[in-house]
Amino acid sequence: MDLFDQTLDEPINILTHDGIANYYGEIMPNTVADFYFKALLNEIDWRNDQAIIFGKHIETKRKVAWYAEQPFEYTYSNITKSALPWTPNLLAIKSLVEQQSHESYNSCLLNLYQSGAEGMAWHSDGEIDLKKQGAIASLSLGVTRKFAFKHKQNANVISLPLKAGSLLVMKGVTQQNWLHRLPPTKKVTEPRINLTFRTIVKN
Question: Beta strand pairing status for 84-85 and 56-68?
Fold first, then answer.
């Protein structure tokens, strides 16, 4: 049986060394995942993501949203976002993710990829606003997409398909040693929502 086609009794660290990326399988039934996908698609305040690269302001096709328990500011790609208050659906999902991962989170960055043409380049989540070596929980909704890790030193690549309702939690020294990305693909035409629950530390 394919590891990624089943619900796991215990999470499995898919990284071979220098980090922890625990894969939990699908933590909610397809009907529930579909309900949340449709709800978030309509209720979240989606905005095209922005970045400043080499002094040039860029707007991406990918849409994002930033929610938290307080109006935390979060800066990445030289753009600062101020968090919106939790919605009831986001709180319900956060509670489930916290129960499964045995971690707590105070914020969530959501990504909307409207088709396989939209992806995310290699990067690591090392922003100063984030709790050092804290857990980042990634819950997928919508179409299945491949997610990949690449070691910063030896370029070893590990990939897995993330299905609707599946949970992946990165923590420890993962961000120091590994990059991750969502590669674009012409094979996918349906949308995907990715919720990344995080912990912001106020300086």
Answer: parallel
Beta bridge mates, 200? 130
Angle at the Cα of 165 (from 162 to 167), degrees rounded to 5? 65
pLDDT in tens, 16-66: 999 999 999 999 999 999 999 999 999 999 998 766 665 665 667 789 999
Reported as a single tens digit per residue, the pLDDT across 55-94 is 665 667 789 999 999 999 887 766 788 899 999 999 999 9
Burial class for 86, CB neighbours closer than 10 Å (0-12, 13-18, 19+): middle
Helix (H, G, I), strand (E, B) or coil at 50: strand
119-135 pLDDT, tens digit per residue, is 999 999 988 889 999 99
* SS3 call for 193: strand
Query: Residue 68 carries which side chain, given as an amino acid letter?
Result: A
Q: How many CB atoms lie within 10 A of CB 100?
A: 18
Strands (E), the chain: 12-13, 20-26, 47-53, 56-68, 73-76, 79-82, 84-85, 107-113, 120-123, 136-142, 145-151, 157-162, 166-171, 178-182, 192-198
Residues composing the chain: 203
* Alpha-carbon span 23 to 5, nearest angstrom: 12
pTM for this prediction: 0.92
